[in-house]
Every structure is written in C-alpha cells, then in structure tokens.
Design a protein that fits this description.
It contains ten helices and 15 strands. By secondary structure, it is an alpha/beta fold. The chain has a nine-stranded mixed beta sheet, covered by helices on one side. Strands 3-2-1-4-5-6 form a six-stranded parallel beta sheet, with helices on both faces. The chain folds into two domains: 118 residues, Rossmann fold; 161 residues, Dihydrodipicolinate Reductase, domain 2 (2-Layer Sandwich), CATH 3.30.360. Strand 9 and strand 10 form a beta hairpin. It is 34% helix and 26% strand.
Length: 334
C-alpha cells in the first residue's frame, strides 16, 4: 500500500529532507502541496507535478492520508491542530510546538481522533549518535555520570531559507526562531534517549551574539537527572573553534567523539593498565524514520519517536527558556 502525502511548506526542509527520504523508502507519494507563497506553488507544479494550494481548507479537502508540516516553527501548532481535527495522520518538523501546553493539546487531539502524530527527530538517526548510544549500552565506560553534547559552528543561516519566502526566518522571534528551538530540539532529544532517568532541573544561558538581536544564536544548557547524571549541552553558530561533539565520563572510563565523523575513542583500564580503542562511526540512516512511520501506519508497529519522549523534550525546553529569563536553575515540570 502507498500512502498519499500532502506537504505544508515547500521550503528547504521539505525539498532536501522529507521528499527525498520518502522517495527513497518508496511507499509514500506526494500528491499535494500547501504554501502561502506563489513562487513555491510554482515550484510544486514544476518540480513535483503536484496540485498546489494557498489555503489549508482546500488543501485538507483533497484525498490525503498523511500531512507533513515543514513550515516555520511558530506555525506548527496551528497547522497541526487543523490537520488532526480533520482526522489526518501528521508529521511535524521539530519542534512540534513552542510550549509543552501546546504539545499536550496536540497529543490529546491525536489520541481522540485516533490518528498518528509524529515529530521528525531525524538526528536520532545520525551515525555519531547511533554509535555513541551503542557503546554506552555496552557499558564500555561503565555507568556514565556526566555527558557533554555540542553542535557548534560559525556562520549565519540568514540565507538558508528559500528566496521566495524569508530566508532569515530562523533569526526572527515571530517565526519561532533561535538555536534552542532549532538545533536544541535535536540534541536535547538525543540526550534524553541516552539517559533513561527523568530530567529534574535545568540551568540555561541563551545569548544573541552576532546573527540576531531577537533570538539566540548560542546557548549552554545543564540538565540534572534523577539518579545523579549531569548533561552539558551547547549549541552555537558563533564558534570559530569547535569542542568535541561528544564527551562522556563513566565509572570505568571515558568516551571522546570529535566533530566531522572521526573515529570515536574510548579509554578505560583493563587488568590495571590503561587501554584505548577507537570505533568507526556508523553511517547515518535518516530514511529509517520514514521506514518506521510506514510500519506504524500500515502494521501498527511501535513508533521510534514516542510521544512521551516528545513531551519530555518540550518540558526541558520550557524550563530552559524560563531559566534563561530568570537567570536561575528551574525545575522541569511535566
């Protein structure tokens, strides 16, 4: 069976990630696009041969099984609410919404309508994350007590978006911009997959350094977990030097993963002597997101991206925003 898909927002995310990944899986067919920008509707017709709409009502009146929402972050909740109310399955780009309250509303609505709601947490399928998780699951460093994760670079994303829309929307507050919502959604989600205990509190510092005066282009986040694990997360678009992508200290050793796909190092002690070994990074496999989604839709398989995990990420982001505003540690409230 092939699922008929409608795309909301034909920008770079849809064109460079969602559409190619669905084509690679081969069990999804793009049949409609909704975009408020006329130039993007022309692209839909020219490049994909799909019918294109300017309003969501007529778009949702078409014969669509699944809607993919790839619009700016501040619009996710509003559009997802419309899609779910129409009883359609729904994939939302991260972040699914800007607050935990909005996330809870969407989850309850999806359950009431008995449709699938999923978030495109594609970085679950990054090769470095897959490899780090596997090595930690094998207890090669013992029990981790501190984990550091960073996504740092130098450069503006002001020209990343499509030219017909606002290429700099990620630096506008009205669009839900800022690196905490953007890349923070990924690295927080990854961290919550690595640490099984519940996050208890967070401390966060957010800064608008170079690329925007409205939203953050840098943040540092400390998460304390029940059981004693501490996580340090950092994301930046103003880093001329990069620190390691991953750094883990455990009761038996340490793990180090540099940026750029270098082999991951683990140093520990065996029989009283220092021992170091390197591990090749496994390949990324983002298409597995849509492979799993097909199995969820077709065979009621267990989703890789679970909605209770989505809630935890939203709760941490809520607390991080509050912590940065109040300049103090804040509890994570579910």
């Amino acid at each position: 069976m092939e699922f008929k898909v409608g795309i909301c927002g034909l920008g770079r995310s849809a064109q460079e990630f969602h559409i190619p990944l669905m084509k690679r899986v081969g069990k999804f067919r793009i049949v409609a696009v909704c975009d408020t920008i006329q130039g993007r509707r022309r692209v839909a017709d020219r490049d994909y041969g799909t019918i294109a709409f300017s309003d969501y009502k007529h778009f949702l009146d078409t014969d669509i099984d699944l809607v993919v929402i790839a619009t700016p972050s501040s619009s996710h909740f509003r559009i997802a609410k419309m899609v779910l109310e129409e009883g359609r399955h729904c994939v939302v780009e991260k972040p699914i919404a800007l607050t935990l309250k909005e996330v809870d509303y969407l989850i309850k609505l999806a359950n009431r309508k008995r449709v699938v709601l999923s978030v495109f947490q594609s970085r679950r399928f990054d090769g470095d994350f897959i490899t780090v998780k596997k090595l930690l699951d094998e207890h090669l460093v013992g029990e981790p007590f501190t984990i550091e994760s960073r996504a740092t670079s130098y450069g503006s994303l002001k020209n990343y978006g499509v030219k017909e829309f606002n290429p700099a929307w990620r630096y506008r507050k009205s669009y839900g911009g800022g690196i905490l919502y953007d890349f923070g959604s990924h690295i927080i989600d990854q961290m919550l997959c690595l640490v099984k205990e519940q996050p208890v509190s967070v401390w966060c510092d957010m800064k608008s350094v170079i690329w925007s005066r409205e939203v953050d282009d840098y943040f540092k986040l400390l998460i304390r977990f029940r059981g004693g694990v501490t996580a340090h997360l950092e994301a930046s678009q103003v880093s001329r030097y990069n620190l390691p992508r991953w750094y883990v200290l455990g009761t038996k050793g340490a793990l180090l993963s540099e940026n750029g796909g270098h082999p991951i190092k683990i140093k520990t002690q065996m029989k009283g002597e220092d021992f170091e070994r390197t591990y090749q990074v496994e390949p990324s496999c983002w298409e597995k997101y849509y492979e799993n989604l097909y199995d969820v839709l077709m065979h009621r398989a267990h989703p890789v991206i679970k909605l209770d995990e989505v809630r935890r990420t939203a709760a941490v982001i809520d607390a991080a925003q509050l912590s940065a505003h109040n300049r103090r540690e804040e509890k994570v409230r579910y």
